[in-house]
């Protein structure tokens, strides 16, 4: 309780200071970008910034279409203790003569893009141009899922984690070790370390198989915490009146330490300060991995919304530390892997997949949207003859080999319920057809002056996220 009060006081003090200083400073939009593994966070940020700097492909961003953005430039971000997002390196990877995908997100990073805007409105001629700063905060989606641990104790988390482990791949070694020990026995460091390593290996295997809800997230991205006690615990079955120095009690203590020393600082320093949020979702990848992975993604997205503090806040609430995210975009990535004729179905499927999460956010007052996008277009569309009929396909370079292929991953249904129902029922395979998805490599680019990288609806996403503030 004392820790919660301290966190609230800290947030209130910081937000009060920001509110007092705001009238004397240029306005700032803090945009959080997250998504689970392989959703395309790094490419999204790189392409968004490049297209805001060279706006030839941004007609649906009204400030760009109306030529009210006079200039856009990068400058040092305000948080000196946070790594800078390596925009130049990532853009170089995507635009090289032999382009390749940049390294994915492994830590919190930040980038500030400043936009010089022409005056608008009845009094615009009197005020002159103004500057708006866009602070983009990039963080792993696995860490976002960890915020849900703050409302759980060790026993409830263990119960859920063990239930998931019994139905997911790669848990055999962990479950075998668990079966050989007594959680109520005396604590032994070597035993707990071996159990924690087996559990971390299981989480990695589950994520590689397409499962989304894999907590604790730092078990997958440990960084400088590798081998520390806060990452050396594992879920355990319940023990009635476990002794003080038992394996169960020490795991419980370390679980609480993980929340206090890892999860809460992330929430306080980064997540609690965000104004707008985009959650990138690899819906097509989950489809290709089958109904169980698809249902797990739905549950993970619902859990993610639960840790947001969505809704519009009055100035007094912000002053008191109750800052809220007031716009959330759920973006299904890799739309370029489908012919444009199926993009509306992909967007509808994303909306249905996230219905529970979106309803929760809208009830709290936040403005939400779901759309199908491609941060970087890697394919071209074509029609081919197949089985005596013409088929809509996309063509691109296969990631890894560079071989040119045509792809038709399968027709999405007009009714998303045809996929949601079997996934919720626990089906092993899709009842009517499978969905095959090949990963494409970036295509070589030839950009004209004033053009950013090619994309699909990135300008529409930008309009929803920041257009009203421009």
UniProtKB/TrEMBL annotation:
Q: Which Pfam family is one of those matched by this entry? A: DUF463
Highest taxon of source? Bacteria
- Which InterPro entries does the entry mention? YcjX-like
Please state what the protein is called: YcjX family protein
Q: Which organism is it from?
A: Rubellimicrobium aerolatum
């Amino acid at each position: 309780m004392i820790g919660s009060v301290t966190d609230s006081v800290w947030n209130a003090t910081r937000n009060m200071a920001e509110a007092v200083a705001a009238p004397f400073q240029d306005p700032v939009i803090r945009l959080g970008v997250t998504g689970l593994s392989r959703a395309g966070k790094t490419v999204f940020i790189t392409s968004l910034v490049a297209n805001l700097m060279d706006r030839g492909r941004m007609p649906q961003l009204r400030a760009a279409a109306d030529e009210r953005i006079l200039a856009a430039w990068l400058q040092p971000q305000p948080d000196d203790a946070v790594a800078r997002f390596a925009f130049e390196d990532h853009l170089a990877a995507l635009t090289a003569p032999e382009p390749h995908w940049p390294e994915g997100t492994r830590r919190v990073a930040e980038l500030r893009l400043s936009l010089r805007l022409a005056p608008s409105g009845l009094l615009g001629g009197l005020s002159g141009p103004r500057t708006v700063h866009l602070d983009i905060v990039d963080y792993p989606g696995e860490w976002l899922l960890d915020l849900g641990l703050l409302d759980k104790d060790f026993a409830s988390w263990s119960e859920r984690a063990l239930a998931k482990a019994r139905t997911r791949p790669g848990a055999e070694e962990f479950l075998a070790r668990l079966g050989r020990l007594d959680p109520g026995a005396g604590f032994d460091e070597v035993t707990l370390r071996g159990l924690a390593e087996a559990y971390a290996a299981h989480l990695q295997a589950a994520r590689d198989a397409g499962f989304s809800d894999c907590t604790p997230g730092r078990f997958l991205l440990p960084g400088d915490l590798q081998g520390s006690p806060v990452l050396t615990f594992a879920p355990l079955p319940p023990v009635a009146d476990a002794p003080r120095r038992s394996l169960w009690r020490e795991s419980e203590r370390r679980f609480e330490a993980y929340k206090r020393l890892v999860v809460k600082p992330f929430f306080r320093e980064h997540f609690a300060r965000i104004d707008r949020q985009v959650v990138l979702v690899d819906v097509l990848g989950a489809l290709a991995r089958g109904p169980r992975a698809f249902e797990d993604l739905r549950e993970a997205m619902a859990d993610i919304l639960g840790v947001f503090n969505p809704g519009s806040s009055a100035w007094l609430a912000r002053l008191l530390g109750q800052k809220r995210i007031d716009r959330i975009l759920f973006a299904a990535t890799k739309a370029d892997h489908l012919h444009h004729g199926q993009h509306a179905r992909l967007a509808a499927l994303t909306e249905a997949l996230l219905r529970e999460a979106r309803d929760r956010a809208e009830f709290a007052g936040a403005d939400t949207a779901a759309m199908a996008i491609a941060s970087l277009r890697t394919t071209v569309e074509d029609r081919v003859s197949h089985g005596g009929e013409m088929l809509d396909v996309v063509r691109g370079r296969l990631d890894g080999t560079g071989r040119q292929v045509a792809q038709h991953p399968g027709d999405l249904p007009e009714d998303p319920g045809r996929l949601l129902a079997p996934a919720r029922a626990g089906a092993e395979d899709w009842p009517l057809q499978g969905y095959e998805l090949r990963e494409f490599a970036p295509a070589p680019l030839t950009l004209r002056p004033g053009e950013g990288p090619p994309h699909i609806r990135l300008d529409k996403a930008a309009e929803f996220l920041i257009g009203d503030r421009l």
